[in-house]
Amino acid sequence: MSTSDKPIFLVSCATGHQGCNVICALLKDNKYRVRGIVRDDSTEKALHLKEKGVELIKGDITKCDTLKSALQGVEVFYAYTDYYDHNQRGRENEIGTMMVDAAKQAGVKHFIWSWLPNTKKISNGKYNVPLFTHKGEVGEYALQQLPTTLVGLAFYYQNFLTLFAPKINTDGSIVYSFPHVGNLPGFDTEELGDAIVSIANHREEWLGKTIPLFGDSMPIEQYIDLLATKEDVKLNLVSLEEFLLLDIERVDEWAEMFAWINEFGYFGPDVNLELRKKLCPKLKTFKQFVESAKVVPK
Predict the structure, then answer these.
(1) 232-265 burial: b if 16+ Cβ within 10 Å, else e
(2) Has residue 296 got a pLDDT over 80?
């Protein structure tokens, strides 16, 4: 099949972490013409994608004109919003809904949405985790509008190095401070791309489904125990009230998330957790992740 005959696969936020991962897997799979939306096509990441043959559409995913242009002729669209982008935070429902509407108008045959549960709806207003709820609302809307698969990403293993990086004491000990979380599903983000490609290549099997992606699921204490096998790592187990006093950006939102997880589960009560085994039976466990990489800073 010549390149021009291949179906077009569009990825939003192409130079973001999710986008780059998905695009790399698509290039390796070599069944699609790969197109990506970027805000700046002159960055090092964007130029690298161009060199690999990715068609880049310069624009803003929050604008209808960008989406209309990027979606021309597209068969599969992997769409996600970035909560950590200040231009998108608080607008994810609006932006995601716009993506759904534009994809429907363009005749997209498979819309794959990076999803998390609608915590506000499921808990009857008890919890509202901003990172989750808007993505859940968009997912519900997408399923009603066009052929859709929802893909739920668990707590990133990499978060132990970034968002929840430990405190390093003068004696060399490394201390993580967390509230108790009874069952936290975890995921190596480097495995996202292959999962998305598998979903796209077996479309009929996954349409209408919500697939949770996680390689491990266990209490926070067990994660820290596994980190402790590699370095002098300790857990400072705190109450939610004590956690709220820690110097962590948007700590109140993370506290809300952990409280939600303890009561309703990370993905909520109604998701079929076994689907991830059918899609990706060999997702990396946290032990494998720790053994395969330097995961604790010195």
Answers:
(1) ebbbeeeeeeebeebebeeeebbbbbbbbbbebb
(2) no
